[in-house]
Amino acid sequence: MTAQGALARLIRSSADRAAGAEAERCDLCAAQVPEEHAHLYDTTEQQLTCACGACAVLFADDGAGDGRYRLVPRRRVRLPEVDTEVLGVPVGLVFFVPRADGTVTAEGPSPAGAMRWEVDPAAWRRLAEAQPQLASLRPDVEALLVNTVHGLRHHWIVPVDDCFRMVAVVRGAWRGLSGGGRVWPAVERFFEDLTERP
Questions:
Q1: Taking residues 42-63, what's their average pLDDT?
Q2: Is residue 159 within 8 Å of residue 76, measured between CB atoms?
Q3: Rounded to 5°, angle at Cα 71 from 195 and 194
Q4: Known InterPro entries for this protein (predicted)?
């Protein structure tokens, strides 16, 4: 999944709202959607699309359908600490997305968007055996979101649109080469605002 399309849409919609521009629209039927609306994962384009309530209902399965679009679920679950070092990803703010084809990608935010790595599938399987809740992640539409920067210990199962919101927070707050003084407080606020939901 590339974050650029979803990230650009999030940034654009935030700017549009601030400027009083026209409301966002469903990418399937062009109906106006509220600020809080559903997203679909487009398996062909490998990106998120906005969906109105009526279109979202059409794809309201278990998130693992085999058609072009998969409804991004709303579930958020805070996990006990997960030892993600075994996955070999060299950053502390990252999300891991299992794919329908059995691969796993890791993405971390940067000033330019999301950096992406391939994760060893065998290492992921071993981690999922040690942490059984990871086996419940719905391919392409849910992620393990981790923040261990500055000694924090946040481990969540979240919908992938939350991950793209986090990438947008980093990109919007980043200043200079090192990020400046705004980026990490903004990331901490993002995690503080996450709430569990079934």
A1: 86
A2: yes
A3: 10
A4: DUF5947 (IPR045991)
Question: What is the distance between the alpha carbons of residues 117 and 121, in angstroms, rounded to a whole number?
Answer: 12
What was the pLDDT predicted at 20?
Answer: 52
* 3-state DSSP assignment of residue 77: strand
Residue 149 is classified by DSSP as: G
Instruction: Enter the tokens of residue 36.
Output: 């809080």
Buried b (16+ CB within 10 A) or exposed e, 71-91: bbbebbeeeeebebeebebeb
| Digit-coded pLDDT (tens) for 14-38 | 545 444 557 899 999 999 999 999 9
Cβ contacts of 15 within 8 Å, gap of 6 or more? 21
Token pair recorded at residue 142: 């849910």
CA distance 124 to 102: 10
Angle between helices 160-173 and 183-193 (to 10 degrees): 150
pTM here?
A: 0.85
For residue 1 the two structure tokens come to 């999944």
